[in-house]
C-alpha cells in the first residue's frame, strides 16, 4: 500500500483497484473501487479505511463510495468489505454514506453488506450521481449516548 501515512492512499498495483481520499472534500472520505477485487485487495482496503477514519480524530465524517467500475465481489471479499462498514457504524462521528453504482448486482451486494455491516440506516445507493451528492449534503446520522 502506497502512502500509508499520507492523506491519500492507493492500492499498489499497475492499475489501482481502490483509492482512499481524505483531502479533496473536507469531512468526506472518498472511496473508489475498480475491476475485480480479491479478498486480499479488500483486506488492504479495510486497513486503509480504518486508518482514514482514525485520522479524523473524532471529527464528523460522511462517506462517498464510487462502485461504478467495480465487478461484483466474491463472497469472501464481500465479507471483508463488511468489516469496513462495521468499523464506521461503530463510530459516533460517522454521519452517513452515498454509494454510486452502475449495475444492479453490485448495488444489491452492497445493500446486503451495508445491512449486515450496520450502516444501511443512513446510506443511499443509486446510479444517479446528483442524487448521491444531494443525499450526502443532507444526511446526519445521530448516535445514542
Folded structure, characterized:
- This protein has 145 residues and is α/β, with parallel strands linked by helices.
- It has one domain (8-137): STAS domain (Transcription Regulator spoIIAA, 2-Layer Sandwich), CATH 3.30.750.24.
- Helices cover 39% and strands 25% of the residues.
- Helix 1 links the parallel strand 3 and strand 4 (61-70).
- The longest helix has 17 residues, at 39-55.
For the structure shown, list the relevant keywords.
six-stranded mixed β-sheet, Transcription Regulator spoIIAA, single chain, alpha/beta, disordered N terminus, 4 helices, 25% strand, 145 residues
Based on secondary structure, the structural category is alpha/beta
User: Can you tell me the CATH class?
Assistant: Alpha Beta
Secondary-structure element string: EEEHEHEHEH
Cα-atom radius of gyration: 14 Å
Strand content: 15-25%
CATH fold-type name: Transcription Regulator spoIIAA
Q: Major sheet: size, sense and barrel closure? A: 6 strands, mixed
The neighbouring-strand order within the major sheet is: 1-2-3-4-5-6
Q: What is the name of the CATH superfamily?
A: STAS domain
How many E-type strands? 6
First and last CA, distance: 36 Å
Mean pLDDT: 88
> How many distinct helices?
4
> How many domain modules?
1
Oligomeric state of this protein: single chain
Task: Summarize this structure briefly.
The chain is an alpha/beta fold and 145 residues long. Helices cover 39% and strands 25% of the residues. The termini are far apart.
Topology summary:
Blueprint: E1 8-10, E2 18-21, E3 28-35, H1 39-55, E4 61-70, H2 75-89, E5 94-100, H3 104-117, E6 123-126, H4 129-138
Parallel strand pairs: 3-4, 4-5, 5-6
Antiparallel strand pairs: 1-2, 2-3
Helix pairs in contact: 1-2, 2-3
Amino acid at each position: 500500500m502506497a502512502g500509508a501515512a499520507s492523506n491519500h492512499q492507493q492500492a499498489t498495483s499497475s492499475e489501482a483497484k481502490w483509492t482512499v481520499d481524505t483531502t479533496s472534500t473536507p469531512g468526506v472520505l472518498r472511496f473508489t473501487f475498480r475491476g475485480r477485487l480479491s479478498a486480499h485487495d479488500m483486506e488492504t482496503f479495510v486497513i486503509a479505511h480504518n486508518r482514514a477514519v482514525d485520522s479524523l480524530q473524532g471529527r464528523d465524517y460522511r462517506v462517498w463510495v464510487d462502485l461504478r467500475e467495480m465487478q461484483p465481489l466474491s463472497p469472501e471479499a464481500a465479507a471483508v468489505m463488511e468489516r469496513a462498514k462495521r468499523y464506521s457504524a461503530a463510530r459516533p462521528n460517522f454521519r452517513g454514506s452515498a454509494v454510486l453504482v452502475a449495475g444492479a448486482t453490485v448495488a444489491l451486494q452492497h445493500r446486503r453488506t451495508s445491512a449486515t455491516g450496520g450502516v444501511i440506516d443512513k446510506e443511499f445507493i443509486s446510479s444517479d450521481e446528483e442524487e448521491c451528492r444531494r443525499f450526502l449534503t443532507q444526511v446526519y446520522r445521530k448516535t445514542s449516548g
